[in-house]
Design a protein that fits this description.
With 696 residues, this protein is mainly α. Helices cover 56% and strands 6% of the residues. The radius of gyration is 28 Å and the shape is elongated.
Length: 696
């Protein structure tokens, strides 16, 4: 673990220096950066996949990325937990206190804002991975003044013994603790009943049960936390060793370990009742098929094909409607408005109508498609299926020398490469982190999906979903083949590790969580469209307005005679052997280096520079793209399109991804990966077109 990461995170906890700490969420959305001066700091700790991030989002509204598989939280997220309510207003208290012994009601008028920290998942404070090391650094190794004021240990009621080991360790430290039980309904389905009052008495720590997915129990947790914050910190519950058995340090550790397991056994025995029935749950019956070594991969492939097919089919009418809106009324109203104030023939009209509206509008037409894609993926995640996908792909991961948990950053990469590379911090070995970071750019992020859909609906109408699915299969194949090649050359001695993973129970996705996750990812897509894309569009418009050849003035030059067109024509010959050597297409790839969505905005600007009212050319953008591919490929249109799609999939990722790679694995490996991506993209596209043109 980088010492700087731990140092920055500890500063976060102490509240003395505030900086934005990015968590692993899709679409490059920034992490929450809220704090309240002087507010107590409460940390959420617990094993992976017990519901910490879901609880964090419920309490803070920060909308941190959630996923129903381990390793979602990679670094530290921070938000404000507002436990206030209107004085005198009724408060719903869901407590487990025995009748006549409730002491929760007296907190009803208490008001307090807390700074809430979501720590990486950890089974214990004995680190086995960088994320567990970070959790230990923030809870144990930091100076007392920088430690959190209270730790909420989120525990899985269905696997209580496993969750209580962290409690057993933390209670040996001078930390205020509260245990929050989740998965109580799952435990009940397995014949396990938890008596929170008795469990609290056994472990000496307040215990509350809650269901963050359904917004139950949050007020009870708030009251327990405020009660504990009002008390003095507890004395460490150190394990006393018999003086007549001094032993060695190793003996002391073994004795301490035995004492912890005895503590856990006593707590579980006194705080739970088990019917003794070995019930075969619905999850067990489903897993028999979805994790099968033969049927599992087939089911995974079918599921993803359905996702792409539904996405492209359902979103098509909405895309057409938005396209008509931007190219029709919005452009016309803007032109008329500018003409009314005397700017109809000025450069302002060109920048606004031909630049921003044409470029950004084309990208925004894909917002419905992105939203539907994110909804379907959120449903798969919240249901628990994605954890099974990790099991299915474990054999493939081990074949390239990566642990099964490397599946997590790679699957995140299909959303956005930036948080995916950050997520490699959870891998235990440096070589595994480097290799995974080099492979992530070959996962097809959603930004590339917009280009796939545009070309698929243009050249393969009626098969757009299947074409997109094929691109994602090619992406997976690239990850495997390049991973094998790197392992056989650079990391021949790197062994494989077995996958150790908690499979969460299948759950019915909730509308609130699905909507929350969808909005986080869609907001990231829209932020890109309104941020980087606007800058790219403005830059392209400016370059297209600067005359280089001919005698036209600024803003009146033909696109091929502009600075943009001349530079693109100088690059285009390099792509002639691949079948997409037109300057319009090659220039779009250069712009796509900034952000892959900018490929569409570049095409929209390049093909729509001329005013249809002046030229009489009202050919739709798609028709102009078809014409360009036909001319550049010498009539071998389809091989050229597939070559372009392959190049789009595998060439240099966006600048944000490169910056993240440099931060995580250094400049040298980043440049190596950059060269590898360009080589794979060009040679693959060349082979596809040259072979395809002979057959097609």
């Amino acid at each position: 673990m980088s010492p700087k990461i731990a140092e920055d995170a500890m500063r976060d906890l102490s509240g003395r220096k505030h900086r934005s700490v990015i968590s692993a969420k899709a679409c490059c959305a920034d992490g929450p950066d809220e704090t309240v001066a002087g507010a107590p700091v409460v940390a959420l700790a617990g094993a992976p996949n017990v519901g910490k991030s879901t609880l964090f989002n419920l309490l803070t509204g920060a909308r941190v990325s959630m996923g129903n598989w381990p390793g979602t939280t990679v670094t530290v997220s921070r938000g404000v937990w507002r436990t206030r309510h209107t004085p005198g207003a009724p408060v719903k208290v869901e407590c487990d206190c025995p009748e006549g012994q409730c002491s929760c009601h007296h907190m009803a008028d208490h008001q307090r804002d807390l700074t809430l920290i979501d720590l990486p998942g950890a089974y214990s404070i004995d680190p086995m991975s960088p994320d567990e090391a970070l959790t230990r650094a923030l809870l144990v190794d930091c100076p007392p003044a920088e430690a959190p004021d209270l730790v909420v240990v989120v525990a899985d009621a269905a696997h209580l013994s496993r969750s209580l080991y962290l409690v057993a360790q933390l209670r040996e430290r001078p930390l205020r603790l509260v245990v929050a039980l989740t998965m109580v309904d799952v435990a009940r389905q397995r014949g396990i009943e938890v008596d929170t009052w008795a469990l609290s008495d056994r472990i000496g720590v307040p215990v509350v049960s809650l269901d963050p997915r359904r917004r139950r129990g949050e007020q009870t947790l708030a009251m327990a936390v405020r009660n504990e914050l009002d008390d003095l910190p507890p004395c460490p519950r150190e394990i006393a060793l018999a003086p007549e058995e001094p032993g060695t340090a190793e003996d002391d550790d073994l004795a301490r370990e035995d004492e912890r397991f005895a503590f856990i056994e006593d707590a579980v025995a006194g705080g739970t009742t088990d019917s003794g029935e070995n019930r075969k749950t619905t999850s067990d019956r489903i897993d028999r098929w979805v994790t099968h070594k033969v049927f599992g991969p087939l089911i995974f492939a079918v599921v993803m094909w359905v996702v792409f097919e539904v996405t492209t089919t359902v979103a098509a009418p909405f895309q057409d409607g938005l396209d008509s809106l931007f190219s029709g009324p919005v452009s016309e109203w803007s032109h008329s408005g500018l003409a009314a104030i005397g700017l109809g023939d000025s450069w302002v009209n060109g920048l606004l109508v031909d630049g921003l509206i044409a470029g950004v509008g084309t990208v925004l037409t894909f917002a419905p498609l992105m939203a539907l894609m994110f909804i379907l993926l959120a449903i798969l995640e919240d249901s628990g299926y994605m954890a099974r996908a990790a099991v299915v792909t474990d054999r493939m991961m081990r074949s390239i020398g990566l642990p099964g948990r490397a599946f997590i950053p790679l699957i995140v990469g299909f959303g956005c490469n930036v948080p995916a590379i950050s997520a490699t911090r959870a891998l235990p070995q440096a070589r595994q982190r480097i290799l995974t970071s080099l492979l992530v750019p070959f996962t097809s992020c959603t930004a590339r999906l917009t280009v796939y859909v545009m070309l698929a609906t243009t050249f393969f109408p009626g098969m757009a979903g299947t074409v997109c699915f094929i691109m994602y299969l090619i992406s997976i194949l690239l990850v495997v083949l390049i991973g094998l090649a790197l392992r056989k050359t650079l990391w021949r001695t790197m062994g494989s590790e077995a996958l150790v993973l908690d499979l969460p129970p299948y759950q019915l996705p909730t509308a609130r969580l699905t909507a929350s996750v969808t909005w986080v990812r869609l907001k990231g897509f829209l932020r890109t469209a309104s941020g980087i894309i606007v800058v790219a569009v403005a830059a392209v418009w400016l370059l297209q307005s600067i005359p280089v050849t001919g005698h036209a003035g600024f803003g009146e030059v033909a696109p091929e005679d502009s600075a943009f067109g001349v530079a693109a024509q100088a690059v285009a010959p390099a792509f002639e052997p691949t079948g997409f050597g037109s300057w319009q297409t090659s220039s779009a790839l250069v712009v796509g280096f900034v952000a892959k969505e900018a490929v569409l905005s570049s095409w929209a600007q390049t093909y729509a520079v001329d005013d249809p009212e002046e030229t009489g050319d009202e050919t739709p953008l798609q028709a102009k793209v078809v014409e360009s591919f036909e001319q550049s490929s010498g009539g071998h249109t389809y091989p050229a399109v597939w070559a372009f799609l392959f190049f789009m999939l595998s060439y240099t990722p966006c600048v944000a991804t490169l910056a993240t790679q440099k931060r995580e694995i250094g400049l040298g490996w980043t440049l190596f990966g950059l060269g590898l991506q360009l080589a794979v993209a060009y040679l693959g596209a060349l082979a596809i077109f040259q072979i395809g043109s002979l057959l097609w």
